[in-house]
Design a protein that fits this description.
Number of helices: 15
CATH architecture of the largest domain: 3-Layer(aba) Sandwich
Radius of gyration: 21 Å
Helix content: 25-40%
Largest sheet: 6 strands, parallel
Number of strands: 12
CATH class of the largest domain: Alpha Beta
Strand content: 5-15%
CATH topology of the largest domain: Rossmann fold
Shape: globular
Order of helices and strands: EHHEHEHHEHEEHHEHEHEHEHEHEHH
Oligomer: single chain
Structural class: alpha/beta
Length: 361
C-alpha cells in the first residue's frame, strides 16, 4: 500500500472540501510514500494547494463542463476525452469518491481503477466495488467523520483529526496589506462578519441566513464596544454585504475584494468570526478561530463544528420543525425561516461578548 496511487474526488463546495482533511491526513500517516491526488472544484484547489499531505490537485468544475456541452457537443467530447486521458495516465490504484453520484461512478469505473470506494446512497454507488451503505443520508454524526470512515475500507484505523487549512505566506501578507490600507490593526482584535450562506443552496440560500436586519443591529452593538467590524462574503453576496455595511457606522466592507485564499487569510487574523452556516464558518474552524454561527434548517450535529465545539458558539432555536434539511433535500419552509428569526440579537451579542472575553459559552 505504501506505493499506491490514491485519487480523492469531491464536486462540492468549501465545507465539503475541508471535511476531507481529516481523511487526507489519515491516509498520509498510514501511507507516507503514497501518491495522493485531490480532484475538486477550482475553489477547492485554492483551499488545498498548500496542504502538505497532498501530492497534486486536479480541477473538475462541473459548471464549466455544462457550458462546454451547451456551446459545442464536439468540443465537449474532445475535452472529456483529454480529461479521461489525463486521469488514466496517472494510473490510480484507489479511488475515494465522495460525490454520491452514479454518473461519476460510471466514469471512474471506465478508468480501470481497481479499488473504487464510496458511500452507497440509494444505489448510487452501483459502479464502485468497495462501499459502505448510507441508508438515510448523513445523519447522527459529522460529515467529516463519515468521510473518515471510508478509510476502514483500506484497513486504516482513523482518529478525529481537526479540519485543516494551510495558507501561503503570500496570502497572509496580502491580507495584512489590505487591512493596513483599510486602517485596521489586527492587534486590536477585529470581528469578521459573514452574513451570507455560500452559493451551494442557490435560490434557497435565504433560508440559511440569519435576517439581515439582525446582522445590522448586532454589528452596531459590536462596533459600539470599540471593535472594528469587517463585513465579507462571496461575489454573489455583494449586495447583501453592501446593504449591511451601509447601515453600520465605521464598518468596513471587504466583500468580493479578495481571492478565496486571501479571504481566509483575513479570517485568520480576526479575533472572532460571526457567520451563517456555510463555508466561512468551516474555514474559521479549520484555522482554529473563535466562531459564532447561526444554524437553521441544517443539523449542527452533521455540519457543525468538528471535532468539538471548543471556542465556538452554535446558536439555534428550539422549534419543532428544525432541522428540516434531511436526505440531501430541503423541503419548502412554510414559516419564513422561523428557526433563524427566533434567534435574538441580544442572544447573539451575549455569545459574541463571551467569546471575545474568553469566557465559557
Amino acid at each position: 500500500m505504501a506505493s499506491k496511487r490514491i485519487l480523492i474526488f469531491t464536486p462540492f463546495g468549501i465545507g465539503d472540501v475541508l471535511f476531507t482533511t481529516p481523511l487526507i491526513k489519515s491516509l498520509r500517516l498510514a501511507f507516507p510514500s503514497a501518491y495522493i491526488c485531490f480532484l475538486c472544484r477550482a475553489s477547492g484547489r485554492e483551499l488545498m494547494r498548500n496542504n502538505p499531505n497532498l501530492n497534486d490537485i486536479l480541477i473538475f468544475e462541473k459548471d464549466d463542463w455544462r457550458r462546454s456541452w451547451s456551446a459545442s457537443r464536439i468540443r465537449f467530447l474532445k475535452e472529456l476525452a483529454a480529461f479521461y486521458r489525463e486521469l488514466k495516465s496517472r494510473k490510480f490504484d484507489i479511488l475515494i469518491d465522495l460525490s454520491l453520484s452514479p454518473q461519476y461512478g460510471l466514469f471512474f469505473a471506465g478508468l480501470g481503477i481497481k479499488q473504487r470506494i464510496c458511500y452507497d446512497y440509494r444505489g448510487r454507488g452501483r459502479f464502485h466495488n468497495r462501499k459502505l451503505i448510507l441508508a438515510r443520508g448523513y445523519t447522527g454524526k459529522h460529515v467529516a467523520r463519515y468521510y473518515l470512515e471510508l478509510a476502514f475500507c483500506l484497513g486504516i484505523d482513523v482518529r478525529d483529526y481537526p479540519l485543516e487549512l494551510f495558507l501561503s505566506p503570500g496570502a497572509v501578507t496580502a491580507a495584512a496589506d489590505l487591512l493596513k490600507i483599510a486602517g485596521v490593526d489586527p492587534a486590536r482584535g477585529f470581528v469578521l462578519v459573514c452574513p451570507g450562506s455560500g452559493d451551494s443552496w442557490g435560490v434557497n440560500a435565504y433560508f440559511k441566513r440569519w435576517p439581515a436586519e439582525n446582522f445590522v443591529e448586532l454589528c452596531r452593538k459590536i462596533s459600539a464596544t470599540g471593535r472594528t467590524v469587517i463585513i465579507a462574503g462571496s461575489s454573489g453576496e455583494k449586495q447583501l454585504c453592501e446593504n449591511i455595511a451601509a447601515r453600520v457606522p465605521q464598518a468596513i466592507n471587504l466583500c468580493a475584494r479578495t481571492s478565496l485564499e486571501e479571504f481566509c487569510a483575513v479570517l485568520s487574523l480576526s479575533a472572532l468570526v460571526i457567520s451563517s452556516d456555510g463555508g466561512p464558518f468551516h474555514a474559521a474552524r479549520a484555522l482554529g478561530k473563535k466562531t459564532l454561527v447561526f444554524f437553521g434548517p441544517v443539523d449542527e450535529t452533521v455540519y457543525g463544528p468538528y471535532p468539538d465545539a471548543r471556542d465556538c458558539s452554535v446558536l439555534k432555536a428550539a422549534v419543532d420543525c428544525r432541522p428540516c434539511y434531511r436526505g440531501f433535500k430541503f423541503p419548502p419552509c412554510p414559516y419564513d425561516k422561523l428557526c433563524l428569526r427566533s434567534i435574538t440579537v441580544d442572544e447573539a451579542f451575549s455569545a459574541a461578548t463571551r467569546l471575545l472575553n474568553g469566557k465559557p459559552h
